[in-house]
UniProtKB/TrEMBL annotation:
Keywords attached to this entry: ATP-binding, DNA-binding, Helicase, Hydrolase, Nucleotide-binding
Record GO cellular component, one term: bacterial nucleoid
Keyword Nucleotide-binding in annotation: yes
NCBIfam families to which the protein is assigned, alphabetical: recQ_fam
UniProt-listed GO biological process terms: DNA recombination; DNA repair
Domain spans labelled Helicase ATP-binding: 24-191
Domain of life the protein comes from: Bacteria
Protein's name according to its UniProt entry: ATP-dependent DNA helicase RecQ
Annotated Helicase C-terminal domain residues: 215-369
GO-annotated molecular function: 3'-5' DNA helicase activity; ATP binding; DNA binding; four-way junction helicase activity; hydrolase activity
CDD domains: DEXHc_RecQ
Pfam families, A to Z: DEAD, Helicase_C, RecQ_Zn_bind
Phylogenetic classification of the source organism: Bacteria, Bacillati, Bacillota, Bacilli, Lactobacillales
């Protein structure tokens, strides 16, 4: 009852969404906690409400500057002024001023790289911490070696901060990733709260048009709904914007835009001034636009984790929404190109480990902490395993495209779940139509069941 009263007082909500209350209770009891909650279920509220009920500064580690800015803007719009993001874009003089005033803030957002800064760690050591939040916690497992090695240093930072309670949050985590997060961030008494990754109101489609741009134009000509279109590169974002700008109210968003431009586009999109936003995956985390009716992936995502998270930004209001993946043979080359760039970085690191690169180079400085914590002898094996994992996730996306069964069942199985209910608008194999208004579609469950459906049962029911 107390938590519901606090929920009403601070957020004017009457009920918690699934998973929120359990996660908050665990944090308030002083236990390290991992919450695996689907996109759109309000993970941010878990640390915000907990933060209001615990004395001290809430330290939030986040992977993207855009995400930090979104979260700060959202808090400020709700009337919370005691929040700030400490990013690489903050001038040194302003950074110093923020660190001198840490006790005045309730929420501080920063990257894992910033948390390795000795000056920052020293300043944080002088204030009372409520708890440490690791947002997008799957980065600890999936990005720790290749993309963001500093995520692997979070256990060390936690120790230097006096081992505060950790709240790790993510929308997507396979059983293996969950175990990785537990081992790295949670102590032995830590608790894990996992809720199904299923979003029954989202229908899943795969389309393979000869001309993707023409297909998108046709789709947009038949809907006035608001949606997101994800592209793999900044160049493609801008090219698609040019192709669509004459036919609908659209804008484009990527990390190359100035921060004030990004904020303006976000506001225009949130306020309904833009029907469509074309973006790289730099857009979306922390954005609360509940009435998105579709998310189109113009390019192939590199993993089911990213696909489920990004497509899950549709239908946050619980109403019918569509997740559409466009594919042409060879689309995987974009992901393979990025993987090749990572191989080049790995090759440089392996040369450093073998003593073939002189000491004191930027490469050595970047990896110094990881080498000290992981051990030089273990890094090559971990790098190889990480590369193999990335390729396997890409292959799973290709298998998702080629499946002739239920797309929802495929995604859930990837995350270690079984399909127990096929909703009326499930996927392009199960009762969903791209251009049929949701209200005219069948409202009953196609195959209601209380036990998991096997692939064989699904195919028998269909055919």
């Amino acid at each position: 009852m107390f938590l519901k009263l606090a929920l009403k007082q601070f957020f004017d909500f009457d009920e918690f969404r699934p998973g929120q209350e359990e996660v908050i209770k665990s944090v308030l009891s002083g236990k390290d906690t991992l919450g695996v909650l689907p996109t759109g279920t309000g993970k941010s509220l878990c640390y915000q409400l907990s933060g209001y009920l615990v004395e001290g500064l809430v330290l939030v580690v986040s992977p993207l500057i855009a995400l930090m800015e979104d979260q700060v803007s959202s808090l400020q719009a709700a009337g919370e002024k005691r929040c700030i993001a400490l990013t690489s874009q903050v001038e040194p003089s302003d950074r110093y001023a923020i660190l001198q005033r840490l006790a005045q803030y309730k929420f501080l957002f920063l990257s894992p790289e910033m948390l390795q800064n000795p000056q920052v760690l020293k300043a944080l050591g002088g204030v009372k911490l409520a708890f440490l939040v690791v947002d997008e916690a799957h980065c600890v497992s999936q990005w720790g070696i290749d993309f963001r090695p500093e995520y692997r240093l979070l256990p060390g930072a936690k120790k230097q901060l006096g081992n505060p309670v950790v709240l790790a949050l993510t929308a997507t985590a396979t059983p293996a990733v969950t175990t990785d997060i537990q081992n790295l961030l949670l102590d032995e008494s830590g608790q894990v709260f996992r809720h199904s990754a299923d979003r029954p109101n989202i229908a899943y489609f795969v389309e393979q048009p000869e001309d993707k741009t023409a297909w998108v134009k046709e789709y947009l000509s038949q809907t006035k709904d608001s949606g997101l279109i994800y592209c793999a590169t900044r160049q493609e974002v801008e090219e698609l914007y040019q192709a669509l700008s004459g036919s609908c109210a659209c804008g484009y968003y990527h990390g190359g835009l100035a921060s004030d431009q990004r904020r303006l586009l976000q506001q225009q999109f949130l306020q309904g001034q833009l029907q469509v936003l074309i973006a790289t995956n730099a857009f979306g985390m922390g954005i609360n636009k509940p009435d998105l009716r579709f998310v189109i992936h113009y390019d192939l995502p590199d993993s089911p984790e990213n696909y489920l998270q990004e497509s899950g930004r549709a239908g946050r209001d619980g109403q019918a929404a569509q997740a559409i993946l466009l594919y042409q043979p060879g689309d995987e080359r974009v992901s393979q190109f990025f993987q090749q760039k990572l191989w080049e970085e790995r090759a440089g690191l392996l040369a450093l480990l073998a003593g073939k690169i002189s000491q004191g180079t930027p490469l050595q400085e970047k990896w110094r902490g990881v080498m000290e914590q992981t051990g030089k002898e273990d890094l090559p094996e971990q790098l190889a395993a990480n590369a193999q994992g990335k390729d396997q996730r890409l292959q799973q996306m290709l298998a998702y495209i080629r499946t002739e069964g239920c797309r929802r069942a495929f995604l859930l199985q990837y995350f270690g779940e079984e399909l127990t209910r096929i909703p009326p608008r499930c996927c392009d194999f199960h009762g969903a139509s791209l251009f049929t208004p949701a209200e005219s579609e069948q409202e009953e469950e196609l195959f209601p069941t209380t036990s998991p459906l096997t692939w064989q049962e699904i195919m028998l029911k269909l055919f």
